[in-house]
């Protein structure tokens, strides 16, 4: 029983250590303009990915710059 408790404590310690290291190493700025740039980049990436998926699936609308074929 004591061995299981020690093993569980080691696992919990490892998980908490990884979380703390990840938090400290990440970009955790409190500057609202810095964070807004991150959010804007994420939104742009999601929009670009959405357009790419639509293009691959053939769901996108034809460009207005493309000449129509008769």
How would you characterize the overall build of this protein?
This protein has 70 residues and is mainly alpha-helical. The protein has one domain (2-57). It is built from two helices and no strands.
Question: What's the short story on this structure?
Answer:
The chain has 70 residues and is mostly helical.
Number of helical segments? 2
Number of domain units = 1
Oligomeric assembly:
single chain
Estimated radius of gyration: 24 Å
The span between the termini is 79 Å
- What would the average pLDDT be, to the nearest integer? 80
- The class by helix and strand makeup works out as mainly alpha
Helix content bin: over 70%
Largest sheet: none
Which percent range describes the beta-strand content? under 5%
Notable traits:
mainly alpha, 2 helices
List the SSEs and their pairings.
Layout: H1 2-25, H2 32-57
